Amino acid sequence: MPLDSELSVTVMGLGYIGLPTAAVIARTGAMVTGVDVTPSVVDTINSGRVHIEEVDLDGLVSGVVARGSLKASLTVAPADVFVIAVPTPFTQDRQPDITFVLDAARAIAPVLKSGDTVILESTSPVGTTEQVRDLIARERPDLKLPGATRPGEQADLAIAYCPERVLPGRILVELIDNDRVIGGITPRCARKALAFYRRFVRGACVTTTARAAEMTKLTENAFRDVNIAFANELSLVADTLGVDVWEVIRLANRHPRVNILSPGPGVGGHCIAVDPWFLVAADPANTPLIRTAREVNDGKTDHIIARAAAMIEAQDGPVACLGLAFKANIDDFRESPALKVAAALAARFGERVHVVEPYATTLPRAFDGTGARLIDIDTALETCGAMIVLVDHDIFRSVPLDERRGKAVLDTRGLWPDQS
Ligand code: SAJ
């Protein structure tokens, strides 16, 4: 590969993963072009600003754009390495939708040249990297593709799968420090992609096949979903038995080989609530546990809505829903169970529902026409006799018992263990 300053990299998709990845690669001195289909995203980045909230990302992007090592574009130019980081949603009937991945592959195909490396990072069903290879083979019959060469012949391109595995809120740290799984269509593809990641990853880089790497990513998020489902199921049993589930989990976790996760109002975000379905879709007959975990976690949201509604009915006056984000201390409301609960309560109880969300400036569309209002935590503590804790934001955690004594509280996050 060329020296850092000569290496050119194109990152397809400038979202939560693509933009931080592009910026981190640009910081190494490579010339990075980020490609996105949304003109406002391209304009924002080219003016040195960011369209997403992530710790320290604004400073990094403004620096690499000012230095000229990162630019954004609506069109794809030739590069040495192409990184695809576009969304892979699922359809109404819970089948993976890889249209954006295939669109990105189609967009880069015309500019590919011998020696280039194509890396897919998007969470994808097993076999997607091979589909990318097959699509490029159809678009570019002049290139020799990996896994489709004659004996003794070298492929013109390296194609690999390397899933991102960063945690929102810690993306810039984890992009560098986390271990990476790099799956090549062939071992040579994996080695080529490994040389690329070595430039900016401090964690271990482990090579395997593309299919194993694809399944590894799905497995990681399904593991977490199943374990959160266990905690959520325990919380229902504990409610039935009148036991404090948080205390039980704290005590059980003192066992050296037990590590139970935390119950909550359900599982949100664009990863853990979605990816397990990719495994279920691949083999429905053999995935009863993974499917049930998804259903338990989704069912927990409905359970909280029912409990919160019962609590509101038993009260007079305004009720505060604390938090809309899908988890603590972030501004991301995608697939958020907290938002789902608060919006369902607003639809039913209207202007009695007050929402506290320090990461929002206005209420999301789901609240339109309900009469619900966005207020701050101080106002909520002064005016609301009942509180429903939906997100464990630090600002809520820090409210002392004195300020919430005597209030009716439904705490879905175990934030206020001293609340009687
Ligand atoms: N949650 C619980 N209880 C817990 C932990 C989490 O209810 O004990 C809930 C959270 O509140 C949230 C959801 O689960 O609603 C997911 O949050 P998370 O922090 O577990 O994960 P994400 O979605 O922010 O990021 C995950 C990470 N995957 C794993 O930890 C296996 C991250 O490393 C992945 O990169 C990311 O998915 C992804 O993009 O796939």
Straight-line N-to-C gap:
63 Å
Q: CATH topology of the largest domain, which one? A: Rossmann fold
Spatial order of the strands in the main sheet?
3-2-1-4-5-6-7-8
| SSE order, one letter for each helix or strand | EHEHHEEHEHEHEHEHHHHEHEEHEHHE
**CATH level-1 class of the largest domain:** Alpha Beta
CATH architecture of the largest domain: 3-Layer(aba) Sandwich
Instruction: List ligands, each type once.
Output: ligand SAJ
What value does the Rg take, in angstroms?
Answer: 24 Å
Mean pLDDT: 96
Oligomer: single chain
CATH superfamily of the largest domain: NAD(P)-binding Rossmann-like Domain
- The domain tally reads 2
- How would you describe the shape? globular
Percentage of β-strand residues: 5-15%
Q: How much helix is in the residues?
A: 40-55%
Describe the structure in your own words:
By secondary structure, this protein is of the alpha/beta class. It folds into 2 domains: 4-203, 3-Layer(aba) Sandwich (Rossmann fold), CATH 3.40.50; 242-411, NAD(P)-binding Rossmann-like Domain (Rossmann fold, 3-Layer(aba) Sandwich). It has 15 helices and 13 strands. It has helices at residues 18-27, 39-46, 57-67, 99-108, 128-139, 171-177, 187-197, 210-241, 245-252, 275-282, 288-313, 337-349, 377-383, 394-397, 401-404; strands spanning 8-12, 31-35, 70-73, 81-84, 117-120, 158-161, 180-184, 205-209, 319-322, 353-356, 373-374, 386-389, 408-411. The protein has an 8-stranded mixed sheet, sandwiched between helices. Strands 11-10-9-12-13 form a 5-stranded parallel sheet, covered by helices on one side. Strand 1 (8-12), helix 1 (18-27) and strand 2 (31-35) form a beta-alpha-beta unit. Helix 1 (18-27) packs across helix 3 (57-67), helix 8 (210-241) runs parallel beside helix 11 and helix 10 (275-282) packs across helix 11. The longest helix has 32 residues, at 210-241. The structure holds ligand SAJ. Residues 123, 164-168, 220-221, 224, 228, 261-262, 264, 267-269, 271-272, 326-327 line the site of ligand SAJ. Belongs to the UDP-glucose/GDP-mannose dehydrogenase family.
